[in-house]
Write a sequence for this structure.
């Protein structure tokens, strides 16, 4: 599973970091780092999506400025 797949599993399918990290056989901190840089890549690409830490999900941005 690549970083993009980890994004899908955690943010879109709602799986826990612990479960996805175990499946990838990497520490949770490594998974968190991969997800962080994946979200940064989306932001730098001018994406209209934002991360909602309360729900641990990616959603369409409701403002003109992207927040991560």
């Amino acid at each position: 599973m690549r970083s993009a797949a980890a994004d899908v599993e955690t943010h879109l399918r709602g799986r826990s970091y612990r479960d996805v990290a175990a499946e990838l056989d990497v520490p949770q901190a490594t998974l968190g780092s991969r997800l962080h840089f994946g979200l940064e890549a989306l932001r730098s690409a001018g994406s209209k999506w934002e991360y909602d830490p309360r729900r641990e999900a990616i959603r369409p941005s409701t403002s003109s400025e992207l927040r991560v």
User: Anything to note?
Assistant: Helices lie at 3-12, 17-24, 28-44. The longest strand covers residues 49-52. Strands lie at 49-52, 57-60. Residues 36 and 65 are 18 Å apart (CA to CA).
